[in-house]
Design brief:
- By secondary structure, this protein is mostly helical.
- Helix content is 75%, strand content 0%.
- Helix 1 runs antiparallel to helix 2 and helix 1 runs antiparallel to helix 3.
Length: 151
């Protein structure tokens, strides 16, 4: 039997095998495309995770610099407080001006406020879930949601 094109017609059994082969090729192509897409999404998420962690690292480094400054400031205040006590208890000679200079400086109130901008953005955008390491993610949350972060 011939088609109008002049080529012999395929028997029904061979046509079904050919159709199944074509379907298999399409399915395999779709599966490969899905795998490539999944791999690409994982790669993008991994890059985002690295960027998030670098941003948090920069915030923490900045907070550590501020904390070290605050520690030195508090040490200075303690020394000035001790100086005032020594002047008051006559353990040390000092003028009224010396006393009030040191006393005035110990009345300054300082404090540390953590840089929470990156963390708040991550929480609001739901991107904190991109940090794959659960222990690290939990530690980040604890750092920024503890009472110390609110002070």
């Amino acid at each position: 039997m011939e088609h109008k094109t002049g080529q012999p017609a395929l028997p029904a059994g061979r046509y079904i095998k050919y159709a199944i082969g074509e379907i298999n090729l399409v399915v395999i192509g779709i599966l490969i495309a899905l795998q490539i897409n999944n791999w690409n999404e994982q790669r993008k998420e991994s890059k985002q995770e690295v960027a998030i962690l670098k941003s948090l690292q920069n915030d923490i480094k900045s907070d550590l610099r501020d904390l070290n400054f605050e520690i030195e400031f508090k040490k200075s205040m303690i020394n000035k407080y001790a100086n005032c006590l020594d002047i008051l208890t006559d353990k040390k000679e000092g003028t009224k001006a010396d006393f009030f200079r040191d006393f005035q400086s110990i009345l300054q109130i300082g404090g540390l406020t953590l840089n929470v901008t990156t963390f708040n953005n991550l929480q609001n955008n739901g991107e904190l879930k991109l940090v794959k390491n659960k222990t690290l993610s939990d530690s980040i949350c604890l750092l920024y949601t503890s009472d110390a972060a609110d002070d």
